[in-house]
Amino acid sequence: NTPHEAGPSVDSEGRIFVSSTAGGMDCFSPDGQKLWSAATDKALLTTPAIGADGTVVARDFARDLWAFSAKGMILWRQETFTPSSATIVSDPAVGPDGVVYSGNQDNSLSAYEGLTFEEYLASLPEPPKLEEQDGWLVLGDHPVPIEA
User: Strand, coil or helix: what is 91?
Assistant: First the structure.
């Protein structure tokens, strides 16, 4: 059994999401069968928030925010730097536009815009292309002679 200290959250399909103090997020079917676990390197302590797109967000003991897809993939992690007057102390909330909100110990509110997995992939630089040019193999900007 995985230890859970925070309350569960239920999405529109009846899936149950629970933060794990063993480090990660657990997802269960409506009949209680474990569907998946996503491991993190820190204990998650808050009740998960669920966005309209199915993104699940929770906070760890170091006050970092973690976002998961509804299928258990880690989408992003928002690190905070302590000590700080803006360290995250509350359960997160997800707005209808996907912005994640969290209250801070200095009575301020932080808003975070995470990337979906597709946006993350699109943000990666393209790998260099391998081409043949005039008897040379060119990888990006690096030509290598082709030996006959």
Answer: coil
